[in-house]
Amino acid sequence: MRIFAKIKGLLREEKWEIPLNALREAIINALIHRNYFDNSFIYIKIYDSKIVIANPGQLLEPLKIKDLYKEHESKLRNPLLAKVFYYAGFIDSWGRGSLNIINALTDEGLEKPLFEESGGSFRAIFKRSVRVNEGVNVGKNVGKNVGKNVRHEMILKKVKKQK
Questions:
Q1: What's the CA gap between 137 and 130, in Å, rounded?
Q2: N or C: lower Cβ tally within 10 Å for the chain?
Q3: Please, how many CA atoms are within 13 Å of residue 21, restricted to the half-sphere of its CB?
Q4: Helix residue spans in 46-121 (DSSP H)
Q5: What is the pTM of this model?
């Protein structure tokens, strides 16, 4: 994942490709809304074109994917865990996680995330800006002049003479 930095005053200010508060919110949601009776993993997959954060467990009824893009009621699968995160200050209010993610992305001019359910899991998918030719010429000239420089031969001769 790319991190961009600029100097502001005396300090370096980093700007992540995907806002950290959006990634943080998605990870917290994955932990809180996970189905802990399912022994599958929460995972984060980083691809060239997207970042996927997924957890076992689908939305609880009556919530639908489309509801996550607007104000909605919170449906807690793990209320005690949610309370711990709330009292620890990781959650500001119930039912705002997906909107916090969307707002963090749109504030930076990025696309809304894709939320989906598949195979018993819930996924938050963040699109990445794809840089098609990034790294294409890396190594193009590596070794181009190897053998043409006689300096190393001169060094070897001097070392041999000193023996």
A1: 17
A2: C
A3: 16
A4: 79-87, 97-107
A5: 0.73
Q: Which helix (H) or strand (E) holds 61?
A: none
| Helices assigned H by DSSP within 47-150 | 79-87, 97-107
Sign of CA dihedral 51, 53, 59, 63: negative
What does the pLDDT look like over 18-32, one tens digit per residue? Answer: 999 999 999 999 999
- The CATH code of domain 18-127 reads 3.30.565.60
In Å, how far from its chain's centre is CA 61?
28
Q: Provide the residue ranges of all domains of the chain, joining segments of one domain with +.
A: 18-127
CA distance 49 to 127: 6
Contacts of 101 (CB under 8 A, 6+ apart): 22, 25, 26, 29, 113, 124
pLDDT tens by residue, the chain, 163 residues: 666 677 888 888 888 889 999 999 999 999 999 999 999 999 999 999 999 999 999 999 999 999 999 998 888 899 999 999 999 999 887 778 899 999 999 999 999 999 999 999 999 999 998 665 555 666 666 666 555 556 777 777 877 887 6
- Please list the residues that pair with 5 across neighbouring strands: 14
